[in-house]
Design goal:
The chain has a single domain, classed as Rossmann fold (3-Layer(aba) Sandwich). It is α/β, with parallel strands linked by helices. It has a 4-stranded parallel sheet with strand order 1-6-5-2. Strands 3-4 form a two-stranded antiparallel ribbon. The relative contact order is 0.13. The longest helix has 28 residues. The structure holds zinc ion. The site of zinc ion has 7 residues, from helix 2.
């Protein structure tokens, strides 16, 4: 009798051990998007490194009409993390990146509800969205809006340029996306992209928002390529024009 009464407990123990093993396997199979270490979607070392980079304001782009507020430079760990989000489905990093960007925006004096009343994004190309199953710029915008306490509103549509493109060079087609803006009651909008490189995407999106009636557009990105790289990338554009 004693042995029989113990059987259910033994089975439960075996089941528990399997569950624990599966849990640990799952945990160990998760790798950091920044450094590939096992155990977390973004390890503590990478979190602190990104936070430190953001506090130093390395990603801030100079003021002016084309100013873009960026949380970090698009180098090292930040580059790996954002590549993980864009190309390896590492969506778990979204919350952290949104927190970094929201912190940077507050640091430079952007007041949610006063300077900006809504957050929007520059939609990625339809084919890329279908391929990935999500739009990383939209996810970042929605997460940042939650942190800032303002609504995320889709105000832009990407113009499909798969049709006739008479008069456009291949470089122009690839480097200058076009958008159309949607009318809305929001007059002051925070525009978000994941990475700013030449600034052409944000400039086109910002222009479309203004055409649609938005009076103030604050452009931002989680990361910005270092200024020296940006200048190098701009050189062929000016030559082509
Ligand atoms: Zn890491």
């Amino acid at each position: 009798m004693t042995q029989i009464s113990h059987l259910p407990f033994q089975r439960t123990d075996i089941g528990w051990c399997r569950l624990r093993a599966q849990f640990l396997d799952g945990l160990l199979s998760v790798r950091c998007a920044g450094c590939n270490a096992r155990g977390a979607a973004l390890c503590a070392t990478c979190r602190f490194a990104l936070l430190d980079a953001s506090r130093r304001g390395l990603g801030a782009v100079a003021a002016g009409p084309d100013a873009v507020i960026a949380a970090v430079e698009f180098t090292g760990r930040a580059r790996s993390v954002i590549h993980g989000l864009k190309y390896r489905n590492r969506r778990a990093v979204i919350t952290h990146l949104a927190g970094l960007l929201a912190g940077r925006l507050r640091d430079v004096g952007i007041r949610p509800g006063i300077d900006i009343t809504a957050v929007t994004w520059a939609p990625t190309h339809g084919a890329r969205r279908r391929e990935r199953g999500y739009d990383q710029a939209e996810l970042l915008a929605r997460a940042t809006a939650r942190v800032l306490g303002v609504p995320a509103v889709r105000l832009l549509d990407r113009v499909d340029r798969s049709g006739p493109q008479t008069g456009r060079t291949r470089l122009e087609r690839e480097s200058a996306p076009a958008f159309t803006g949607r009318r809305s009651r929001h007059q002051s909008v925070l525009l978000i992209d994941d990475v700013v490189t030449t600034g052409s995407t944000l400039a086109a999106a910002s222009g479309a928002l203004r055409t649609a009636g938005v009076r103030r557009v604050v452009c931002s990105a989680v990361a910005a390529t270092p200024v020296q790289n940006r200048r190098k990338r701009r050189a062929p554009l000016s030559t082509a024009a």
